[in-house]
Design a protein that fits this description.
single chain, 234 residues, rod-shaped, 13 strands, mainly beta, 6-stranded antiparallel β-sheet, 5-stranded antiparallel β-sheet, 1 helix
């Protein structure tokens, strides 16, 4: 006679019941049953275990953005430091004029003497531009006996009369005529129908203050025409 025995085992995984049925005959040895039971439990548990999570693939995108640089150019309008339209008070003796000027940009600036005098002359000597204790001009006293690195320009075209130049004797015949402030040489200018310019360029740095000094006088030759002189930073 064969006796059939039914054994049930319940295992709980993730709130689910695993029901395993094993049947064996009366003649089946106990060890074989235990091994078979364990194998079936492992199979059931593997089926009930949650599947591994699929990790998302992280994609990193690097982007390089172009940098746009905008350059703003600041310009500085010409600055008239001083001007007169009459030689009154400037005859015979030199007068000294001093100014402070601040550069708004880093560039080459120009100091220009614009002169017109008929029938007389303007005289200029000992011109200086100093920043931080350093003289920026070359030949400011005109003692080389020649104009360079100063230059004469004619922004109004040909003016007639006597062009601005370095001299040691121009206008000596008039009252208070041509003499230097110091040394031997100076600039004399007798342009008649318009003004010409005697000028020199020098490097400037934004934000720096420049101390400017010059000496000017005129000779008395009567008054028959326009008289004008101006000092401008371009």
């Amino acid at each position: 006679m064969t006796t059939r025995t039914t054994t049930s085992t319940t295992s709980s995984t993730s709130s689910e019941n695993i029901l395993i049925y094993y049947e064996y005959s009366h003649n089946t040895d106990q060890l074989s049953f235990i091994l078979l039971f364990q194998q079936r439990v492992r199979q059931q548990l593997q089926q009930q275990l949650p599947q591994p999570l699929v990790q998302p693939v992280t994609s990193t995108t690097s982007s390089t953005s172009a940098t746009s640089t905008t350059t703003t150019t600041t310009t500085q309008a010409p600055t008239q430091l001083w001007s007169v339209s009459s030689r009154s008070g400037l005859i015979s003796s030199y007068a000294n004029f001093k100014f402070s000027w601040t550069a708004l940009t880093t560039r080459n600036a120009t100091i220009a003497f614009q002169m017109q005098n008929k029938p007389g002359y303007w005289y200029v000597d000992d011109v200086s531009v100093i920043a931080g204790g350093t003289e920026k001009l070359v030949n400011g006293g005109f003692e080389t006996g020649s104009l360079p690195p100063w230059i004469r320009t004619t922004p109004n075209g040909a003016c007639g009369g006597t062009a601005g130049s370095v001299t040691s004797s121009l206008g000596n015949g008039g009252a208070g005529g041509g003499t230097p402030k110091t040394g031997t040489y100076y600039v004399g200018d007798g342009s008649e129908t318009c003004y010409d310019q005697v000028q020199q360029s020098f490097g400037v740095t934004m934000g720096i203050v420049y101390n400017i000094s010059f000496w000017i006088k005129s000779a008395n030759y009567g008054s028959s025409g326009p008289e004008y002189i101006a000092v401008v930073i371009l």
